[in-house]
């Protein structure tokens, strides 16, 4: 038989308890999520810089012209042959020129002016990026 009025629902205490548990879970995971987002931004910025250097080296060789990228106000600034400006370095607090010249130049023979950069991320991590003078190859290293 079907009883009318015998269906059970959630009490107010059960609903409040579920909300408290969900709040605790969110408060524990939210800081980790923010750190994850910062880490993703930093890795993307680092990858973007390395890709820029590799692209400029290839472009210098194929177009047989010198390609340059400048360090200004803790950003890498690239101007293409049409004069359009592209800025790289989101997620970086500071970009220090440790060795080499500013601007960094890539030459038609595949070499570069050579540079060693120290990137300091927004959360204080240090990354060393080096562009070899002879080969123009880029290496990345975490600094402790």
Automatic annotation (TrEMBL):
UniProt KW Transcription regulation keyword: no
Tagged with keyword Transmembrane: yes
Alphabetical UniProt keywords: Membrane, Transmembrane, Transmembrane helix
InterPro entries, A to Z: N_methyl_site, Pilin-like
The name this protein goes by in its record: Prepilin-type N-terminal cleavage/methylation domain-containing protein
Lineage of producing organism: Bacteria, Bacillati, Bacillota, Clostridia, Halanaerobiales
Domain of life: Bacteria
Transmembrane segments: 12-33
């Amino acid at each position: 038989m079907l009883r009318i009025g015998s269906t059970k629902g959630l009490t107010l205490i059960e609903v409040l308890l579920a909300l408290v548990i969900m709040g605790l879970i969110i408060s524990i995971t939210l800081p980790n999520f923010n750190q994850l987002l910062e880490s993703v931004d930093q890795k993307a910025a680092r990858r973007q810089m390395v890709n820029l250097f590799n692209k400029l080296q290839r472009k210098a060789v194929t177009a047989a012209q010198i390609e340059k990228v400048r360090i200004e106000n803790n950003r890498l600034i690239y101007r293409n042959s049409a004069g359009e400006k592209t800025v790289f370095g989101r997620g970086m607090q500071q970009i220090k020129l440790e060795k080499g010249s500013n601007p960094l130049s890539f030459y038609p023979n595949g070499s570069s002016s050579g540079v060693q950069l120290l990137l300091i991320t927004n959360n204080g991590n240090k990354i060393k990026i080096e562009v070899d003078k002879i080969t123009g190859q880029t290496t990345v290293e975490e600094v402790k």
